[in-house]
Amino acid sequence: MEEDILIQISNRIKEKRREKNITVHELATRANVSKSLISQIENSRTVPSLIVLIDIIKALDIDLNVFFKDIRPASDYPVLVKRKEEYESFEKENAEGFLYQRIFSKVIKSSTVDIILLELAPGANRPLIETKAFEYKYVLSGKVKYQFENEHYVLNEGDSILFNGLLPHTPYNIGRKTARMIVIYFFEDSIQ
């Protein structure tokens, strides 16, 4: 399984457990596994066996087809936009006062990472371009419109976007002040 699918499964388990108002301990008891195993699975720190996964899903009283509906590789989504309120919070053992929020996860093998701070002045423009990298953008301040060939996404402070840079794209500052973004390029031998 690809790592992004495992993260979707982990998040789905946590989401369904919370929807049903079941504690980690209660789910562990129902599935006949340890509390720490449930915690590790929910935080994508371990991969459950197929039998354990099925037991957990059954313990949540969810049909397998319903549980796996809409779980698919991230490559099925050419552009992924995450609003800051959609970031998934998770905990790590023995870490009080730490707030971890998973924004995006993408497995990219044999890659080079380039991290950039981009400032866009009001009215800044350029033509649509292509990059041989996966691109991740996090808006620190301002309001940015990301234009692709046939669609666009408006991103506010705290929003983020991940896409295959081979899609023709360009950002526009649609605010009155300079917009600031963290930009991360993931270069690899060949992207799909």
Automatic annotation (TrEMBL):
Boundaries of every HTH cro/C1-type domain copy: 13-67
GO CC terms of this entry: cytosol
GO molecular function: DNA binding; DNA-binding transcription factor activity
SUPFAM superfamilies: lambda repressor-like DNA-binding domains, RmlC-like cupins
Keyword Repeat (UniProt): no
Alphabetically ordered keywords of this record: DNA-binding
PROSITE patterns documented for this protein: HTH_CROC1 (PS50943)
Keyword Ribonucleoprotein: no
Annotated protein name in UniProt: XRE family transcriptional regulator
